[in-house]
Amino acid sequence: MIFSKHLPLLIVVVAVFTFFFPYYMDVANWVPSFLLAIVIFFTGLSMKVDAIKSMKSNYYPLLLATVFKWTFTVLISVFLAYAIFSSRPEIAAGVILSGTVPNATAATLYTFIAGGNAS
Q1: Total-model pTM
Q2: What is d(CA 1, CA 67) in angstroms, rounded to the nearest whole number?
Q3: How many whole angstroms separate alpha carbon 119 and alpha carbon 5?
């Protein structure tokens, strides 16, 4: 798959493009939510039933990953916000929010596009 080989390059090109042209298309407010729902739906369809069953029998790594996600990422983001961005409260708030919001959708999508096990 072409995305698997060139995914980092695609991410950089899109990031640079959107940096220089942030408002290239005006869309209705419901469009991003709808597109996100489509991504989540098709990612869920790609999961195998056996993968879901294996999560039930092997719950320790899942529990460990959940605990790490909701403790370490939050603590690291709060530490970075106070240590580096204490003079800029708007950036500090963004750093804390980025460490506390669930962001598995993007990670699952990138893993799936790159050919990894997204389940």
Answers
A1: 0.48
A2: 34
A3: 21
Q: In angstroms, how far is the first alpha carbon of the chain from the final one?
A: 19
Half-sphere exposure of 40 (CA within 13 A, CB side): 9
d(CA 18, CA 85): 24
Angle of the 59-83 helix axis to the 49-57 helix axis, nearest 10: 80
- Could you tell me if 77 and 98 are in contact, meaning their C-beta atoms sit under 8 angstroms apart? yes
Residue with tokens 């929010």: 97
pLDDT for 114 equals: 61
Contact 95, 77 (CB under 8 A): yes
Which residue ranges make up each domain of the chain? Answer: 1-46, 48-118
Tokens of 48: 């195998």
pLDDT tens per residue across span 16-25: 988 888 776 6
